[in-house]
Amino acid sequence: MRGIRLSINLLAVIVLSVLLMALASSLLPTCTPQKPAPQLTLRIGFFPVQDFLPYFVMQEQGFGKKNGFQFEETSYAGGAAIIEAMVTNSLVDVGIVGTVPVLTAAERGLIPIKMVPVAANAFADPDHPHIGVLVAPSINNWKDLKGQLIAVNAINSIMSAPLRIRLKREGVDKYELIEIGFPNMGLAVAGGNIAAATMTEPYLTQSLLRGDGKLLGWIVGGPPFERMETTMVVFRGDFYRSNPQAVKAFLRAHLQAVQWMSQKPEEARSILAKRLNLNKETGWNMKLVRWSLDGRSDPVLLENMQPVLVDVGMLKAPIPVSKLYDETLLEEVLREKR
Amino acid sequence: MLRIRLSIKLPILIVLAVVITALAANLLAIFIGRNIMRTRALETNINSVQAYSSAISLYLDNARSVLETTANLPEMKHLASALSVSPKPLRLMIHGSRSECKTAELILEHSKVFEYVMLLRPDGGIYHLDPAGLKTKFSHHDQAFTAWYKELMKTSQTVVSNLHISPITQQPTVVIAVPIFSAKGKLVGIWAGGLKLEELSKIGHRGLESEKLLHYGYVTDSRGLIITHQAKLRYVERQTDFSSVPPVRAALTGQQGASQFVNPIEREEELGAYVPLPGAKWAVVYEMPTRIAFEPINSLIRNIALTSIFLAALLCLMSMPVVRKITRPLKQLMAGSERIGAGDLIQRIDVKTGDEIERLADQFNRMAVALSEKETQLRQHTERLEDTNKELEKEITERKRMMEELRTASIYARSLIEASLDPLVTISPEGKITDVNEATIKVTGVPREGLTGTDFSNYFTEPEKAREGYRQVFEKGVVIDYPLTIRHRNGNLVEVLYNASVYKDIRDNVLGVFAAARDVTESKRVVLDLVETKNYLYNILQSSTKYSVIGMDLNHCILSWNEGAMRNYGYTEEEIIGKDAKIIYAPEDIESGAVERFITTAYEKGVAESEFQRVRKDGTRFPASVVITRRNDASGRPIGYLLMSSDIRDKKEAEERLRYASQYARSLIEASLDPLVTINPDGKITDVNEATIKVTGIAREELIGTDLSNYFTEPDKARVVGYREVLEKGFVINYPLTIRHILGTTTDVLYNAAIYRNEAGELQGVFAAARDITELKHAEEEIKKLNEELKRYIIQLESANKELEAFSYSVSHDLRAPLRAIDGFSRIILEDYLDKLDDEGKRVLSVIRNNTQKMGQLIDDLLLFSRLGRQELRASGIDMGKLARAVSEELKLAVPERKLKFNINTLIPAQGDQAMIRQVFVNLLSNAVKFTRPKERAVIEVDGRSEGNENVYTVKDNGVGFDMQYVDKLFGVFQRLHSSEEFEGTGVGLAIVQRIIHRHGGRVWAEGKVGEGATFYFTLPRGTKGGGR
Prior knowledge:
By secondary structure, chain A is α/β, with parallel strands linked by helices. Chain A has helices spanning 2-30, 53-60, 63-66, 79-88, 99-107, 160-169, 182-191, 203-210, 237-242, 244-263, 265-275, 280-285, 299-311, 328-337, and strands at residues 40-46, 69-75, 94-98, 115-124, 131-135, 149-152, 176-179, 196-200, 214-220, 228-236, 290-291. In chain A, strand 6, helix 6 and strand 7 (176-179) form a beta-alpha-beta unit. Mean pLDDT of chain A is 86; it is low at 24-38. Chain B is α+β, with helices and mostly antiparallel strands. Helices cover 48% and strands 23% of the residues of chain B. In chain B, strands 2-1-7-6-3 form a 5-stranded antiparallel beta sheet, with helices on both faces. In chain B, a hairpin with a 2-residue loop joins strand 31 and strand 32. The longest helix of chain B is centred in the first third of the chain and has 66 residues, at 6-71. At the A-B interface, helix 1, helix 7 and helix 12 of A face strand 4, helix 6 and helix 9 of B.
């Protein structure tokens, strides 16, 4: 008799405990302020291009939160603008920046004092082209661009450098460059404002699908830069030195995101389309770059691109690759993984 | 089935009932609530989109009217007219006069809808732009390329452009352009302004904290590109394409309405309303995410769910005491009933609840009391019944036993009577039959009912004798072997001997006679048969002439002697009967005890068989096969022997021949060096020869009976081919197998096998012979090795030859250059310095020239010789006679002073390289011409014939000939049998001949004798194109 009573009491306690737990867990989502916030807020310089896909995945899949930080996002016109925001008024802690702005920054002596590239983000090759030239219907070859107005997102950017080199090689010496934001380039070509625009994804595919113009050719992933390290993860210099653990946390999350993207490429495309507010067709048709799975830069690629940049006057002289980036923290993160 | 206790079931049931009811009610409420909310949200959106559309229209109308009003100002018209007729080149002029500057400033300042305004000439050139600060951004002075300009020029009316990138700001904008007409109605200018899309996006709400808007409106141009967006200005900045959003698509086709849809750009479900913008081909949409629209109901759902859980838990807890109160008496009741069920009728259930459970407990208690009383009565009754039962059982058992014994005895007695083969009968004192057995029915042919009660004497051939018989029984009490003959109803008679006696009751009163008849008909017939058989056997024995059949007693005394014995031994029956049988045995068989053992065996075993030498009456002997059989009397006791023998001389001789033939065959088999084996159809070895023993290393006894396949390296292969295939096909030839020696060594063999049959054609097995091919294999290996070595040598040789040829060609070629120089300079000295040279100098120079020319010739020959090694053969049919004649004619012309006679016979045509064969004739014939020089009349004969597969050609001369001991040197390079003083030449000519002929796959040789001329032979393969290397 005593045993039966005991079992009933025990059952009641268990049921009550389960119910209270269920109650507590049900209430939690409605009381978000009670959730402990990530310890650190990283201010990220952003512009809406595919190179920020790892960042989007970090947010969507929670890799950032898992590694103890959240993001505060500020939009800029491009990588050069992010660098300026980073070095002049310290508004940005981390950014995804093109290798050409990184090189020009290095030439200006900003690395490693003001900024430190810590990892490679993406590479381009003929299977993963990165920058293409959208042209008006009247333009049929490179020579037709002679004397024309051509849009780039920034004059000293990864967009303009290969264009200038390609035009030089094609024998086109007279043309005019104008800075127009990526989103505006397609309509500018369609409206007749400009004859051509160097565009990256997803804007290029979006414009092609919209019928703004046609693709003349790839200039990164095609001549002059068939293979190129396109973008790097860059941290503000003082942040890098004062918060190495935060940098490592970001790198951990970044590598996790890239790993996830390689395993689930379709879902990654979906995230990119969602974050860039693309329609379905653009999302599926745009060309994606090759992501660096281990975050290591390719010194050969970085070295090979420099003489060309010197040739067109974007660099005064080649810069030793060793002075371009610091992968010390990346190696520590990779060692942790092993 | 899951057994759950009531104490658990009840709370669960209560909770489930409450939860399910609450859930159903809630779901219904949610469904209704959502529908209401959806309808309300859509209605709200419809109102909002109408209002928003009106606001946008108003905004655009205002902007348009501002421009249109100012365009009609007299000073603007005047200015525009002046500009349009101005001869000055006005392109790139973006500063205006005071009046338009003032107007533009006023517009920008007061309307706040334009980002910039500009005055354009009719050709699209910008005359004025305000604010002037935008000059740094603009890219085109000429706006003639823009779509809105083209439309305005086409319609001469105010134009509201689609969304486009402004060449002034490089940002997305919408331009309103108004034509300026002169007083005469001529287009003199365009007054245009770019709208502030940011301001346009603010229409309908305060501030631009747009990201927090719960519902919002947006406008797209005719392509679906966002022009304004209340919530997300970045869509405007990026001209995001909303053409895939269902309401936008619908509005752009002129529809208006409201719907629930998934926004593919936002990737969210929305409730939206849409209208086309009046006066422009734009779409206006107002939408709200369903998560916002349904937030109250969703919140309610959460609250209800939580409340339900809480209530369920509370209910569960509260129901516990009730459940316990309900279940406690039930448990007592259950325990009590279990006790009653277990037989405990003394205990009572003590439940005091005052309800049905207590009444149920009372009923259980009363039932227990009643059961207890009934149980006591039942027990007493049962005890009594048990006693009675025991007695009855005992009695019944005893009776059963007695009955069983009686029945058994009766059955036994009757079965004995019925089983008797003798007719049995009981007869009353009156002579009437009272009982019969089955044998009586059978012997009389009358059924049992027909016999009983009838007179016993009726069934005999002599009824009186029968009556007399049983009268004697009554008198004497018994009668034995009383002969009678029973008559069967069908007339058959059976002779019997009757034994009969009286039988009495327990008071010794005679009741009747019991008579048993013994049928003696068969006994009589057997005796007759025996006599007949004896006579028959005697006749057989006596008539057998081939076999001797001799009867004798246990002392070997001859009792009978048949015709065959008389013939075989020569004794007559009279002479031999009564004599000892040892007379016909050979004395040595008797002395050795063989005869005694033979007879003893027959005595012990009943029969013995052997071969003995037998002795005839005349003393001669013959081999005989003897069978002796013991004779027994009727009781099985031995009484003598029957000796049967036959002459086996013919058989013995045949056996001897067979034995010899077998030994011969066996010796051949054993002598065979090939392992030979016979196998039965099961694959087991039945015989082997010595070679097999040797090759396997296993003794004959161990081999026989084992599986043949065991002795090969590949047993399966041997099994399949070794005998299965042989059995199927009848034979197998040269099948390669490898025999394994017991020590592990192996022997490669070629296996040949065929089936063999007996005389009746029945399959006996397989005969197999294995041929050791180890040596053959070694030889093949050796040949292969030699061939490979030969190939290597050939390759080396060819390589060396090629190198040598290349070397000699190069040397010869290089030597010609200095030679030409020496000769040339010598000639120059002789020509230019002739007068300065004395005779000795001239001679020496002449010698130098001669020698250089000789050397030149030598090098030419070497070059030719070397070239022949590399030159490709161009085979064709050659008329050898024609070729030889042509060469001979040339040679004649070269030495007109010589008396040469060429006898060129008919030559067989050949296949080969014509140029090369020509060289052969040139060299051989010129040699002949050269070496016949001492002869006054040279005769050179060319002939040919066919031998086997080749044509043989000869060149014969009557020249100086040569010594045959040097014949080997003839065809070597630089080999000469005569000095150059005697006969000029380089010593390469015949070497060239040899090389050409060899390249054609032919042979070359020579025969000669000093002073008697020489004959050169060469052959060319017939019908082939030569064997050039």
